[in-house]
Amino acid sequence: MSYSQIGLLLDIVGVLILFKFGLPSSFKDGTEQFRFPHDPQRDNYNRMIKFMARLGLVFLLVGFIFQYFGTNQTNI
């Protein structure tokens, strides 16, 4: 399996993760209308979503790096 193929597979996994969990984002809850009571279960779920979104971006980045090196290989 070449670097380009590995990179493509990593990109596909990254896109699927981002499709399911979305891009990482955050908002400031400085106003009273957006403040919610503390809920540990919701906080854990939000942390998991943020982690998975960042993981998807890492997969994409590493996949692009693999594809770059795969296309720039010189056969000796």
List its traits.
single chain; 76 residues; mainly alpha; 2 helices; rod-shaped
Can you walk through the features of this model?
It is a single chain. This protein has one domain (1-22, 39-76). 67% of the residues lie in helices and 0% in strands. It contains two helices and no strands. Helix 1 (3-21) packs antiparallel against helix 2 (40-71). It is rod-shaped. The mean pLDDT is 84.
How are the SSEs ordered, and which strands pair?
Blueprint: H1 3-21, H2 40-71
Helix pairs in contact: 1-2
- Tally of alpha and pi helices: 2
Please indicate the count of domains.
1
The structure class reads: mainly alpha
Radius of gyration: 18 Å
Q: What does the average pLDDT come to?
A: 84
Secondary-structure element pattern, one letter each: HH
Short summary of the structure?
The protein is mostly helical.
